[in-house]
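Shapes recur. One chain:

:::
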Amino acid sequence: MDLPIETNRLQLTELTLADLTAYEKLISIPEIAAGAGFNLVSNQQMLGAVAKRQITTPNSFGIRIHDRLVGAILLYEQVGFDHQPDPANLELSYFLHPELWRQGIMSEALRSCPRSMVFDILLCKKRV
């Protein structure tokens, strides 16, 4: 997928380590933390480790408005019955800063992803 992808209101980009501080701030917001289970992480150091792992995982995308990271879309391999990652089955996770809820921002971000993106990701995983 060619990134960034721009719409009238947002930009979809890859997440990088340069986003770590902004990402940690986002996942520390109580509404996001509770919805994504980050409120179960007991200390800031552990939260930082979770954030770093998530943004360095392939298929992690940032949602930006005016160059500000305001959310993320993450695709993870589901864990199969054998307790191993299953590259044929992806799980979608996403979150957005609460001040932007109910404005259609996340719908716009998800629609901006080419339909072929998930298929491309799956095909690349199967070739590995």
Remarks:
- The first helix runs from residue 20 to 28.
- The two ends are 18 Å apart (CA to CA).
- Residues 122-128 have pLDDT under 50 and may be disordered.
